[in-house]
Each structure stands twice: as structure tokens, then as C-alpha cells.
Design brief:
Layout: H1 6-23, H2 29-45, H3 50-79, E1 99-102, E2 110-115, E3 118-123, E4 133-140, E5 144-147
Parallel strand pairs: 3-5
Antiparallel strand pairs: 1-2, 1-4, 2-3, 4-5
């Protein structure tokens, strides 16, 4: 080992992994760093053989990895936008379910629909005529409205 004391070695390993968390992309090294720090504390109070140390480090790492997984899962669930705000920046998705006016006759499945004061390219399986009302059922590529 690097130093005579296993406590110091585990402390250095734990701190090195924790500092690497700041440099390496991702959020997983901090949990192994915490496991190394726990090993340092454990070794201070209860010296043991290297093979036993490695087993304990693996156990601590697994426990902290599971804690980290549940922590991030909880945090990311809390960060999700409410259902009514999920399409806030996707203007085409906001039209799904609304009634629109057909601006041109449907030719080869394509037409234009009037939504408010703008016209959108739309697809329709039905032979709709100019002035008909239709319901927006889906959006494709954030630009194309599919009307029924």
C-alpha cells in the first residue's frame, strides 16, 4: 500500500474518488468515494486483512450505489413537469384534440388547416373540403397536424 496505515490509504481513495466526481461526467463516483471514506473509519476502529477490506469496500459500495440510485430516482421524479406543462414549448402538441377549420381541399391526403390566425400543414385520410371542421388527432415531427 501507499502508506503504512490502511486508514490513511482508504481516506485517500475515498477523497480521490469524491474529487474525481467533480471532473468525470456522471454521478456515480461519489458513492464509491463515500464507501472509501466509510472504510477509512472502519479501519481506524477495526484493523483487518486486505482481502477482508476489499470485501467490506464492495459491500459499502453496493449499499451506497443502491442509496444513490433511489436518491436520484426520487429527485428526478420530483423534477418532472406536471402533465399540463409537458407540451408547453411544443406548440403543435398543444393543438391535439382541438377543432380546426380546413383551409384547402384535401389533395393526396394533404391540406392546410387554420388554427387561430396561422395555417398549418395537415394530413387527412378523409376527403375534407375547404371550410369543414376537423379534429386534430396527432402531431408528427412537431409540424404536421393529422386531422379527422
Amino acid at each position: 500500500m501507499l502508506f503504512e496505515s490502511a486508514t490513511t490509504n482508504w481516506l485517500i481513495i475515498g477523497l480521490a474518488l469524491s474529487v474525481l466526481e467533480l471532473i468525470v461526467p456522471g454521478t456515480y463516483l461519489i458513492w464509491f468515494g463515500l464507501a472509501g471514506l466509510c472504510m477509512s473509519v472502519l479501519m481506524y476502529f477495526m484493523p483487518m486483512a486486505l482481502s477482508t477490506q476489499i470485501i467490506w469496500f464492495a459491500v459499502f459500495s453496493a449499499v451506497f450505489a443502491v442509496i444513490g440510485w433511489y436518491s436520484y430516482r426520487y429527485i428526478f421524479k420530483k423534477m418532472q413537469a406536471p402533465k399540463e406543462y409537458q407540451n408547453l414549448n411544443d406548440s403543435a402538441q398543444q393543438f391535439v384534440g382541438r377543432m380546426v377549420t380546413i383551409a384547402e381541399d384535401v389533395v393526396d391526403g394533404q391540406t392546410k388547416v387554420k388554427v387561430g390566425d396561422t395555417y398549418w400543414l395537415a394530413y387527412s385520410e378523409k376527403p375534407l373540403k375547404k371550410g369543414d371542421k376537423a379534429k386534430v388527432t396527432a402531431v408528427k415531427d412537431s409540424l404536421i397536424l393529422i386531422v379527422e
